[in-house]
Amino acid sequence: MAMKDSEPDFRPVLNITIWILAASSGSFLGLRIWGKHQRGRKLWWDDGILIAAWICLLLSCILQSVDTHFGFGQRDADVTSQDILDMTRLVSVVAGFFLVLAAAWSKTSFALTLLRLTIPTKKCFSVRGMIWFAIWSTNLAIAASGVFQWAQCWPLDKLWRQWLPGQCLRLGIVNGYNMFVAAYSGLMDITLAMLPCKIFYPLRIQRDEKIGIVVAMGMGIFAGATSFMKIFAIYNINRIAAGPEHVVVLMILGTAESAITIMAVSMPVLRTLLMGRDKT
Question: Cα separation of 165 and 218, whole Å?
């Protein structure tokens, strides 16, 4: 069934935006790996986890694009059959789960990169402790969100076949927790982005080097801002009259959050490559 002319189609916006984000973050990641190879540096845990995060981001983008082919981004009434509607819901759940993994792992890579830039001394003990706290608390909070995503309905397939008999947690409970995770995740993003100021300010390196590294890592602030924006998107979905545009916005913001984090983690390596020095 074709969409009526009076009803907007959000699928082109979703596809264009997520693939720009995937391509941009993939380019930054590729340059990061190439830069380390050029400088004769081996890949470390933060690199491996960052690669895994981008793969999850890529898989989510593929699934989101496939889902738009079946009708994701349209109103339910415009989808041609119940089976296709069920399929779009299932694919969107899987795509969302990959975004959860991408968010958790990209933030972990960000934190691990900071750990490598701090010397384990008494002065840096509090900084390293804060980083480890951010790693564990953020991963636990996001992991619980992933569990909620799959365990909110019983039987399981009622999650995408909403017409089946069974029960689901109230949408307000699930979205309420997801709003908390978005807020906490954004707070940790901003905290980690500000830590380079404390790490590098006391060091005896050139001022422009300090500023460059801090600004590069400070891109994580934008990831935190994106995470905060997800709070409002989730709130809109929780409303009774929420339309497909609100779900599309949430998927775009979820994609942007991980993509920006991947670019932020890659910035210091790219900068040192351009400057002809290797600080990581």
Answer: 49
